[in-house]
Design brief:
- By secondary structure, the protein is an all-beta fold.
- The protein has two domains: 15-304, Glycosyl hydrolase domain, family 43 (Tachylectin-2, Chain A, 5 Propeller), CATH 2.115.10; 331-534, Jelly Rolls (Sandwich).
- It has strands spanning 15-19, 22-27, 32-33, 37-41, 48-51, 70-79, 82-92, 108-116, 127-130, 137-140, 146-153, 162-171, 176-185, 194-201, 204-211, 219-225, 233-234, 241-242, 252-261, 267-274, 288-296, 302-304, 331-332, 344-346, 355-356, 364-367, 379-384, 389-397, 405-414, 417-426, 430-439, 442-445, 452-453, 459-466, 469-475, 483-484, 489-490, 510-517, 524-534.
C-alpha cells in the first residue's frame, strides 16, 4: 500500500521510467545544486535518491539565475541500453503580460540533453537541443525514430504565450534535431499548455500535457492521434486528473503527469501536487510529487481507478512491497568527505569556494560569502522541508568580528523569503544572536527585544515549525534549558503562494546552515552536525 501517495523528499515536475524491475523518477531542482534528482524503487513504495547528475561545472552553472529559474522539468527515458535526460535551464523568467497587453514577455531557455549508460554513474556534458520554449521531452518510437517535444513560448504581445506543443525529430546518432518543428497540439480552454509526454499504445499516440497553470486550476489533459504529428483529439470527458474545483482535497494543484506501465501490465501516473497548510491556501513544501494507479477505459481513454479524476489519498502498489526501509537518520554528523545526500546548495558548480568537510574534520565549514539575497555566491547548505511540523538543530562555532559577518540556522524559501537566526557582532552589544527575515523581498531584523548577547564558545540553535508558526531557540550547553526567542514568525510567508505571484514560486521551504561575510573577508563558520526531526504538532 502506498499509504500516502506523496513521495517523501521529492521535488516536482516528475518523469518516470521502468527498466526491467527498476523504476526511476527524475524531478526538477530549480536554482538548487547539483541539478536534477533521480530516485529509484522496485516496489513503488520505498524510494531512494540515487543521483543528482548535473554536478560538474562543464554541465551546469546557475550563478546569476533568478529565484525559481534554473533546472526545470526533466524527462528521463531509456533506449537501447542508454538513459536520456532532457531538461530546461531557465535563465530569465520575466513578467508575463496580461491578455491584450501591448508588451513583450521575453524569457530565456535552453533545452538540453545528457546521457549515461547508468543512472547512478557519470552523465555526459549537455547538448543544447533548442531554446523555443521549456519542458522538453523525448519519445522513442517503435520504428527506431526519436522525437523531441516541448511547449512553444510566444513572447509577442497580444498572443497566447503558451503557444502549443511542438514536435521535432531527434537524430540519436548525430545528437541533434533534424527536420522542421511542427505544432501538434494547442491545448484546451484551460490554457497554459505545457509539460508534454508522449506514449504509444494499441496504435494510438497519446499526448499528456499539463494545463491550467501550476496553481489551483492545474490539470492533466490527454489527447490522442493515429499519427505522431496529429491531428490530436482531446479526451472528451475533460482532464484525466485534477484537483480543480475540489477545494476540500488534501492534495491540490494536481497536474504535470507522466505514465509508466508496471510489470503486471497495469499503469501508474506520477504527477505534481501541493499540500496546503490546514485552513490556509499556502503550500510551504512547495510543489511535490505523488503517484497513483490509473486504468484504461474500453473506449481507449485513461482515467483514475474510481473514474472521478481526483488525486488519491491512498493507493495500492502493483509491485510486491519490499521490507520496510530503515528509519530516517535524524542526526547527521559531518564526518565524511561528501555532504549527506539530502543536502544541497545554491547555484554554484564550485562548492569548494562555499564550504569544506575536510578543513576541520567532523564539521561543515562554511566560508562567509554574499548576503542571503544574493543570486550568485551564497554559502548556504540546506535540505527540503518534508512535513508540516518539525524541529531542526545545529551547533555553531563562530567568532564574528564586525556587523557584516553572520552565520546561523535559516528557514529559506528563496532570496526574498526566509527567516534567519544568526550569530553576529555589534559594537554596542558585542557577540549576539538575532532574528532576520525577508518577506516579499523586504529584508528586516527583529525588534531589540529579540537580541540575545552570547558569551564565547559554541552555541546550539533550534528551529521549531508547527504548521504556520516558526520559533527559534538557543543554548550554549547541552544540559541547559532552551532559551526561546519571544517572537513567533509566520511560516506561511515561506510558501509558493506568498509574495509576487507573477514571478516563479516553485521550490518549497528548505532549512539549513548559512554564513555571510559582506566585508569580503570570507570569515568561516563551523557547524557541528545537523538534526532534522519530524514531529506531532504542539
Amino acid at each position: 500500500m502506498i499509504r500516502n501517495p506523496v513521495l517523501k523528499g521529492f521535488n516536482p515536475d516528475p518523469s518516470i521510467v521502468r527498466v526491467e524491475e527498476d523504476y526511476f523518477i527524475a524531478t526538477s531542482t530549480f536554482e538548487w545544486f547539483p541539478g536534477i534528482q533521480i530516485h529509484h524503487s522496485r516496489d513503488l513504495v520505498h524510494w531512494r535518491l540515487v543521483n543528482r547528475p548535473l554536478r560538474r561545472a562543464s554541465q551546469l552553472d546557475l550563478r546569476g539565475v533568478p529565484d525559481g529559474c534554473g533546472v526545470w522539468a526533466p524527462c528521463l527515458t531509456h533506449k537501447d541500453g542508454l538513459f536520456y535526460l532532457t531538461y530546461s535551464v531557465v535563465r530569465r523568467y520575466g513578467r508575463t503580460t496580461v491578455s491584450g497587453a501591448n508588451g513583450l514577455a521575453l524569457r530565456d531557455f535552453s533545452n538540453c540533453l545528457v546521457t549515461s549508460d547508468s543512472v547512478t554513474g557519470e552523465w555526459s556534458n549537455p547538448v543544447q537541443l533548442n531554446s523555443s520554449g521549456f519542458d522538453p521531452s523525448l519519445f522513442h518510437d517503435d520504428d527506431g525514430k526519436s522525437y523531441l517535444l516541448n511547449m512553444l513560448w510566444d513572447h509577442r504581445p497580444l498572443r497566447r504565450h503558451f503557444g502549443g506543443i511542438v514536435l521535432q525529430e531527434y537524430d540519436r546518432a548525430g545528437k541533434g534535431l533534424i527536420g522542421e518543428r511542427r505544432i501538434i497540439y494547442t491545448g484546451t480552454e484551460l490554457g497554459f499548455t505545457e509539460g508534454p509526454h508522449l506514449l504509444k499504445r494499441d496504435g494510438w499516440y497519446y499526448l499528456i500535457v499539463a494545463e491550467g497553470g501550476t496553481g489551483w486550476d492545474h490539470a492533466v489533459t490527454m489527447a490522442r492521434s493515429r499519427h505522431i504529428d496529429g491531428p490530436y483529439e482531446t479526451c472528451p470527458t475533460g482532464p484525466i486528473l485534477t484537483s480543480r474545483g475540489r477545494p476540500e482535497g488534501a492534495l491540490q494543484r494536481a497536474g504535470h503527469g507522466d505514465l509508466v506501465q508496471a510489470r503486471d501490465g497495469s499503469w501508474l501516473m506520477v504527477y505534481l501536487c501541493g499540500r496546503p497548510l490546514p485552513g490556509l491556501l499556502r503550500c510551504v513544501m512547495g510543489r511535490e510529487t505523488a503517484i497513483q494507479p490509473m486504468r484504461w477505459r474500453a473506449d481507449g481513454w485513461l482515467e483514475t481507478l474510481d473514474g472521478e479524476g481526483a488525486p488519491a489519498i491512498t493507493a495500492q502498489s502493483p509491485e510486491p512491497e519490499a521490507e520496510e526501509a530503515a528509519p530516517d537518520i535524524v542526526r547527521r554528523h559531518f564526518d565524511t568527505a561528501d555532504l549527506p545526500e539530502e543536502f544541497q546548495w545554491l547555484r554554484s558548480p564550485c562548492p569548494d569556494q562555499l564550504f569544506s568537510l575536510t578543513e576541520r574534520p567532523g564539521f561543515l565549514r562554511l566560508y562567509g560569502r554574499e548576503s542571503l539575497g544574493s543570486q550568485f555566491e551564497q554559502a548556504l547548505v540546506a535540505r527540503r522541508q518534508e512535513a508540516f511540523c518539525y524541529s531542526a538543530t545545529t551547533r555553531l562555532d563562530y567568532s564574528p568580528r564586525n556587523f557584516q559577518q553572520s552565520a546561523g540556522l535559516v528557514v529559506y524559501y528563496n532570496a526574498s523569503k526566509y527567516h534567519y537566526c544568526c550569530l553576529t557582532y555589534d559594537d554596542a552589544v558585542g557577540r549576539h544572536l538575532r532574528l532576520m527575515s525577508s518577506v516579499s523581498g523586504l529584508d528586516k531584523i527583529g525588534p531589540d527585544s529579540s537580541i540575545h548577547p552570547i558569551s564565547d564558545g559554541a552555541v546550539e540553535i533550534r528551529a521549531e515549525v508547527d504548521y504556520d508558526r516558526l520559533r527559534f531557540a538557543f543554548r550554549q550547553d547541552a544540559s541547559d534549558d532552551w532559551i526561546w526567542f519571544g517572537l513567533t514568525l509566520d511560516m506561511s510567508e515561506l510558501s509558493d503562494e506568498a509574495g509576487p505571484q507573477d514571478l516563479p514560486n516553485f521550490t518549497g521551504a528548505f532549512v539549513g546552515m548559512a554564513c555571510q561575510d559582506m566585508s569580503g573577508g570570507r570569515l568561516a563558520a563551523d557547524f557541528d552536525g545537523f538534526e532534522y526531526k519530524e514531529k506531532a504538532a504542539t
